[in-house]
Amino acid sequence: MHNPLPDAFRDATPDDIPALVALVTAAYRGETSRAGWTTEADLLDGNRIDPEVLRADLLRPRSRVVVAENDAGLLACAHVAEEDGAGYFGMFAVRPDLQGSGLGKRVLAACERIAREEWRLPVMRMTVIDVRDELIAFYERRGYRRTGVFKPFPYGDTRFGLPKRQDLRFEVLEKPLPPEPTA
After folding, report:
1. CATH for 10-176?
2. Local confidence band at 1 (pLDDT 50, 70, 90 cut-offs)
3. Residue 173, pLDDT score
4. Where are the domains of the chain?
5. Nearest-angstrom CA–CA distance, 67 and 128
6. Other beta carbons within 10 Å of 168
7. Contact 50/64 with Cβ under 8 angstroms?
């Protein structure tokens, strides 16, 4: 039987932008997202990622979008970048029918490796909508902690969605990235 999960990851290119936008949207917005557990369909409509913001992320230094794919297309992705002397993890998406398969954990670990081993960064940070308790618990099981630092949701900027409620905000989560022991 063909294993639908990839053995390796690659960096996205600008040619991947349409497929990345489709993958991220399917994982978080609209009815298709309800097949997985990461849906934001009850919180937001509209875009989850803007193609021009994504293009800028792909082209700037120390910024990569890691993708997992097989012959059927993109299965998962995440953005990892250096911001303010730390790794930043975002735009994390796994195809809804593959959520719970372990693929997301592997993508997260790959991004942590990039920040720790290639860029020698001491910590990984991310922002999560603070009412997403199940998602925050997923990250806490992987060593992230809530910092109590909040950032406003970009109300009025339709590049990032159309909020269905007025109490959305982001909380910063972080995880130390100790250097790998040398043999």
Report:
1. 3.40.630.30
2. very low
3. 97
4. 10-176
5. 20
6. 19
7. no
